[in-house]
Amino acid sequence: MPPALYWDAGYEIVLELENHYPHMDLNALGLEELYHYIVALPTFADDPLLANDGLLRDILREWFEERET
Length: 69
Known about the structure:
The chain is mostly helical. The chain has a single domain, classed as Arc Repressor Mutant, subunit A (Orthogonal Bundle). It is built from three helices and no strands. Helix 1 (10-20) crosses helix 3 (53-68). The longest helix has 16 residues, at 53-68. The mean pLDDT is 96.
């Protein structure tokens, strides 16, 4: 099993999101929906209440960048 995910592990969260949702339309993904996908990841172990829009935007941007590579 992969290691536990915490909010400060943005890249690792993106890799797990891409693994679980490879066909997700990132252009249609809102921050609230992204939040729910993250906290639903089986290895997510952080406090969901620590999320904020800036953090979610950073993760979404990193997900876009990961798809471009």
